[in-house]
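Incident log, structure service

09:12 report received: a user says their structure output differs between two submissions of the same chain.
09:20 pulled the input from the user's history:
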Amino acid sequence: MNKKTFLIAIIILIVDQVSKSLVEIYFKLNKSYSVIKNFFAITVAHNTGGAFSILNNYSFIFILASLIAVIILLRFMLNFKNNFRNNLAFALTLSGIMSNLADRIFLGYVRDFLDFTIFGYDYPIFNIADIAIVIGVILLIIAILKGEDKNAKTTSH
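09:34 re-ran on a clean worker, output below:
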Protein backbone atom coordinates (compact mmCIF):
# COMPACT_ATOMS: atom_id res chain seq x y z
CA MET A 1 0.00 0.00 0.00
CA ASN A 2 1.54 3.29 -1.02
CA LYS A 3 1.43 6.36 1.23
CA LYS A 4 -1.58 7.93 -0.54
CA THR A 5 -3.58 4.71 -0.27
CA PHE A 6 -2.70 4.43 3.41
CA LEU A 7 -3.66 8.09 3.98
CA ILE A 8 -7.03 7.62 2.23
CA ALA A 9 -7.70 4.52 4.35
CA ILE A 10 -6.88 6.36 7.58
CA ILE A 11 -9.08 9.33 6.61
CA ILE A 12 -12.05 7.08 5.81
CA LEU A 13 -11.58 5.13 9.04
CA ILE A 14 -11.48 8.38 11.05
CA VAL A 15 -14.53 9.84 9.26
CA ASP A 16 -16.49 6.65 9.94
CA GLN A 17 -15.50 6.47 13.61
CA VAL A 18 -16.18 10.17 14.20
CA SER A 19 -19.57 10.00 12.45
CA LYS A 20 -20.56 6.98 14.54
CA SER A 21 -19.46 8.71 17.73
CA LEU A 22 -21.32 11.93 16.90
CA VAL A 23 -24.50 10.04 16.11
CA GLU A 24 -24.20 8.11 19.38
CA ILE A 25 -23.79 11.40 21.29
CA TYR A 26 -26.60 13.37 19.66
CA PHE A 27 -29.22 10.72 18.87
CA LYS A 28 -30.97 8.09 20.97
CA LEU A 29 -30.53 4.38 20.34
CA ASN A 30 -33.30 2.75 18.28
CA LYS A 31 -35.07 6.05 17.67
CA SER A 32 -35.53 7.27 14.11
CA TYR A 33 -35.05 10.93 13.13
CA SER A 34 -36.47 11.80 9.72
CA VAL A 35 -34.14 13.87 7.54
CA ILE A 36 -36.00 13.52 4.23
CA LYS A 37 -39.55 12.31 4.82
CA ASN A 38 -40.21 8.75 3.56
CA PHE A 39 -36.65 8.51 2.17
CA PHE A 40 -33.83 9.07 4.67
CA ALA A 41 -33.59 8.97 8.44
CA ILE A 42 -30.91 8.73 11.06
CA THR A 43 -31.66 5.67 13.16
CA VAL A 44 -29.05 4.60 15.68
CA ALA A 45 -28.73 0.82 15.82
CA HIS A 46 -26.24 -1.57 17.39
CA ASN A 47 -25.65 -4.54 15.11
CA THR A 48 -24.17 -7.60 16.81
CA GLY A 49 -24.43 -9.59 13.59
CA GLY A 50 -23.48 -9.15 9.97
CA ALA A 51 -25.27 -7.60 7.02
CA PHE A 52 -29.04 -7.66 7.52
CA SER A 53 -28.29 -8.56 11.18
CA ILE A 54 -27.56 -12.20 10.29
CA LEU A 55 -25.92 -14.27 13.01
CA ASN A 56 -26.70 -11.80 15.79
CA ASN A 57 -24.54 -12.18 18.89
CA TYR A 58 -21.80 -14.07 17.03
CA SER A 59 -19.31 -11.21 16.93
CA PHE A 60 -16.36 -13.57 17.23
CA ILE A 61 -17.21 -15.03 13.80
CA PHE A 62 -17.21 -11.56 12.25
CA ILE A 63 -14.01 -10.56 14.06
CA LEU A 64 -12.27 -13.67 12.74
CA ALA A 65 -13.71 -13.20 9.23
CA SER A 66 -12.62 -9.55 9.23
CA LEU A 67 -9.07 -10.42 10.27
CA ILE A 68 -8.87 -13.08 7.56
CA ALA A 69 -10.29 -10.64 4.98
CA VAL A 70 -7.68 -8.01 5.90
CA ILE A 71 -4.85 -10.53 5.54
CA ILE A 72 -6.17 -11.74 2.18
CA LEU A 73 -6.68 -8.18 0.90
CA LEU A 74 -3.17 -7.15 1.94
CA ARG A 75 -1.77 -10.17 0.10
CA PHE A 76 -3.90 -9.51 -3.01
CA MET A 77 -2.84 -5.88 -3.02
CA LEU A 78 0.67 -6.94 -3.98
CA ASN A 79 -0.61 -8.59 -7.16
CA PHE A 80 -2.97 -5.89 -8.45
CA LYS A 81 -1.87 -3.30 -10.96
CA ASN A 82 -0.76 -0.17 -9.13
CA ASN A 83 -3.17 2.53 -10.29
CA PHE A 84 -5.45 5.06 -8.61
CA ARG A 85 -8.66 3.02 -8.92
CA ASN A 86 -7.11 -0.13 -7.47
CA ASN A 87 -5.39 1.78 -4.68
CA LEU A 88 -8.69 3.50 -3.86
CA ALA A 89 -10.47 0.12 -3.93
CA PHE A 90 -8.07 -1.33 -1.36
CA ALA A 91 -8.16 1.83 0.78
CA LEU A 92 -11.97 1.81 0.85
CA THR A 93 -12.33 -1.91 1.49
CA LEU A 94 -9.63 -2.13 4.16
CA SER A 95 -10.71 1.02 6.00
CA GLY A 96 -14.34 -0.11 6.06
CA ILE A 97 -13.43 -3.53 7.37
CA MET A 98 -11.03 -2.11 9.96
CA SER A 99 -13.53 0.48 11.23
CA ASN A 100 -16.32 -2.05 11.70
CA LEU A 101 -13.76 -4.45 13.20
CA ALA A 102 -12.76 -1.79 15.74
CA ASP A 103 -16.44 -1.42 16.73
CA ARG A 104 -16.79 -5.18 17.16
CA ILE A 105 -13.61 -5.53 19.21
CA PHE A 106 -14.05 -2.49 21.47
CA LEU A 107 -17.85 -2.30 21.71
CA GLY A 108 -19.12 -5.78 20.86
CA TYR A 109 -21.33 -4.43 18.06
CA VAL A 110 -21.19 -2.24 14.95
CA ARG A 111 -22.79 1.21 15.16
CA ASP A 112 -25.16 1.81 12.23
CA PHE A 113 -27.23 4.92 11.56
CA LEU A 114 -27.97 5.53 7.86
CA ASP A 115 -31.55 4.46 7.23
CA PHE A 116 -33.03 4.68 3.72
CA THR A 117 -36.48 3.80 2.41
CA ILE A 118 -36.54 3.52 -1.38
CA PHE A 119 -39.71 2.68 -3.33
CA GLY A 120 -41.34 1.59 -0.08
CA TYR A 121 -38.53 -0.77 0.93
CA ASP A 122 -36.81 0.07 4.23
CA TYR A 123 -33.20 -0.97 3.65
CA PRO A 124 -31.13 -2.34 6.53
CA ILE A 125 -29.45 0.43 8.51
CA PHE A 126 -25.77 0.87 7.66
CA ASN A 127 -22.79 3.20 8.16
CA ILE A 128 -20.01 4.91 6.21
CA ALA A 129 -17.70 1.90 6.61
CA ASP A 130 -20.31 -0.28 4.90
CA ILE A 131 -20.47 2.18 1.99
CA ALA A 132 -16.67 2.10 1.72
CA ILE A 133 -16.63 -1.70 1.66
CA VAL A 134 -19.31 -1.94 -1.05
CA ILE A 135 -17.67 0.66 -3.30
CA GLY A 136 -14.23 -0.87 -2.70
CA VAL A 137 -15.43 -4.37 -3.61
CA ILE A 138 -17.15 -3.06 -6.76
CA LEU A 139 -13.89 -1.38 -7.80
CA LEU A 140 -11.97 -4.59 -7.13
CA ILE A 141 -14.43 -6.56 -9.27
CA ILE A 142 -13.90 -4.05 -12.08
CA ALA A 143 -10.13 -4.48 -11.73
CA ILE A 144 -10.47 -8.27 -11.89
CA LEU A 145 -12.72 -8.07 -14.95
CA LYS A 146 -10.11 -5.83 -16.61
CA GLY A 147 -7.35 -8.32 -15.76
CA GLU A 148 -5.63 -5.95 -13.35
CA ASP A 149 -5.44 -8.57 -10.63
CA LYS A 150 -2.28 -10.00 -12.19
CA ASN A 151 1.07 -8.72 -10.99
CA ALA A 152 1.84 -5.53 -12.93
CA LYS A 153 5.33 -6.87 -13.69
CA THR A 154 3.89 -9.79 -15.64
CA THR A 155 1.17 -7.96 -17.56
CA SER A 156 1.58 -6.03 -20.77
CA HIS A 157 1.14 -2.24 -20.86
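09:41 both user submissions now match this output. Likely a transient worker issue. Closing.
09:42 reviewer note: The chain has a mean pLDDT of 90. The two ends are 21 Å apart (CA to CA).
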